[in-house]
UniProtKB/TrEMBL annotation:
The lineage of its organism: Eukaryota, Metazoa, Ecdysozoa, Arthropoda, Hexapoda. This is Probable enoyl-CoA hydratase, mitochondrial. Keywords: Fatty acid metabolism, Lipid metabolism, Lyase. Belongs to the enoyl-CoA hydratase/isomerase family. It comes from Anopheles culicifacies. It is an enzyme of class 4 (lyase).
Amino acid sequence: MANIGRMLASRVAGQLVRNVATNQQQQQANLLRFYSSAPKSYEFIKAELVGEKKNVALITLNRPKALNALCNGLIAEVNDALDRYEADDSVGAIVFTGSEKAFAAGADIKEMQPNTYAKCINTDFLANWTRVAKAQKPIIAAVNGYALGGGCEFAMMCDIIYAGDKARFGQPEIALGTIPGAGGTQRTTRAMGKSKAMEMCLTGNMITAEEAERSGLVSKVFPADKLVEEAIKLGEKISTFSPLIVRLCKEAVNSSYEMSLNEGLRFERRHFHATFSTKDRLEGMTAFVEKRAPKFSNE
């Protein structure tokens, strides 16, 4: 009887532990949902959910007196907002924009000017500026006005760039006695080719939105007052698809920067094969065959 009593007590204790663990997991999930969706006030950016279904995050760079120059505080807030929106399952895409005068006119030179080589090395200066490029959700840059230096590099970290018709892009670091440090020499070359990249980086000259579109840096150009609206529409369209498949597709496209053609084709094919293990691939094809709209579950 004593053994039976101990067994029963052990089972009850085990069930209590499991219940506590389940409750803790549920509380953590609730906290995560609250953290990701609760409004938050920032100093250097504005962040809000937009679109008809509130499934697109709009992050506006907001240092108007400095033409949205990128300072450490602004980058920290951008990274925080990205963490929140990436954790929010209701958000399917993220749009970055600035003002009609400036998307971002560069890095904050006053903040950067006192730096030394030793400080740059010891603090791994600019390493935390690449969070945008590492995002799993689609990122759209809606560029009005100036996107220069770090501002141009920031836009190029995004997946898609839409530009207002008065936008200007450039890498003017050469005039400051330095070079681009957040991807300007690398992403311009991949987007526009060596000759155009060399011209931009070695002269500091700006290019227009139309030139940027012809060169492949920008996807589309819109009137300045319609730009953000069009970027949000794009985010809404992307958000209608399976978030899981969108992530796989984005990863496959980005892999082309890092791999040879044969390696990239193999990577793409394996990702394509992997979609056949998902419920959303089955739902998408079944809906097509049945001539109805798909209902994706992110599984």
